[in-house]
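Weekly puzzle thread! Below is a chain. First person to post its structure in token form gets bragging rights.
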Amino acid sequence: MPENLFIGQKNRILQHVARFAPGATTLRVRLHRWRGVRIGEGVWIGYDSVIETSRPHLVSIGDRAVISLRVTLVAHFRGAEGITIESDAFIGPCAVVLPNVTIGHGAVVSAGSVVTASVPPMTVVQGNPARPVARCGRTLGPKTSLTQFQRSLKPLKERRASAPQS
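Winning reply:
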């Protein structure tokens, strides 16, 4: 019992320090790895993000993924467990990702979205609950400008023009 208490306390301290520490690609990533989060290479973790407070081993983040500022990853709740964020995925500011979710390779979760179901690769989702709105032709990464990324998007549904007023 005292050993589990020590592990839990260490995890909480590292989580708290990681939220406010500098180094989105260095110190923050290292602190989360020490907690048990599986993190690939070239990952960027934004300021004030919360990555599964009590069971960090349930979270896996692939290479070159971006976790923007104030993102919350909740990897367990009432039996549902685990979050996988695949390589080159982008999670926008203030998004919430819930258990049993995989964010596919190159997928984009827009700011403020609540992700309750898995996101296919190269898909943009938004809203609460997050729904697919577009397909990506390119990943949103350091080698892609925002203009290039936006030009590569293909909407999933055509927006209907409003009916003429009579």
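Puzzle host: Confirmed. Bonus trivia for everyone else. Residues 77 and 153 are 34 Å apart (CA to CA).
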